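Blackboard transcription, Thursday session:
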Amino acid sequence: MNAAAGIELLRMVSRPLKILVWFGRLPLKVFGWFGRLRPPGSRTAHLLSLLFGRRAAERIFAQTIADAREEWVEAAARGDERKQRAIRWRTPLVLVFAAVAFVLAKFASPITNALKIGKGVGELGPGDDDAEH
Amino acid sequence: MLSSKEFAVLRALIDNGEKYGLELVRESDGVLKRGTIYVLLERMTDKGYVESRQEKNPTVSGLPRRLYKPTGLGERVYEMTAQWNAELAGGVA
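(Written on the board underneath:)
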């Protein structure tokens, strides 16, 4: 193989190689964005407040964010970058868990209680909060 | 009757006074989880077992904390549940 053929071959494979490398690095870029060293923000909490209301946002999601920030600041004070990244990763998951728990508590509990005591959901009164009481 | 998590929350609040969610999670030895603690506290507030107030000065987090403490009803329900559990344990033993 002469030099010209070698250069031509390199040209042929370089473009697909560049594309492959770019796509290969894409997950790293995304992971890096999630794992960057910044205290967990409250944008997600604002979004959740639109979905679940202001009371839930203030009492559940903002408090969860405050917990994450406090732990992040403590980790930063110790110089524990690994813990800081872990908190950054964990916080969206914790918020999702909180949202699922909120939905279950809001909707599933009245339905199961109504089934237990044989009443329609609309017929439940304040004393019917827990069927086992 | 209180659930095991509600019992753990009331025990911590009765023993140690006003607390916020993260403190309760840290002291529970894995019984209480970060993702569900505030939903649980909200549910207990609706039931009248605990009450809360917002902290005046935000702490390191930059967000105002909500501190929880047991109500009289919460303390009575806790005592009854503890007594019930003790009687059950005594009956089994």
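Lecturer's comment: Residues 4 and 68 of chain B are 18 Å apart (CA to CA).
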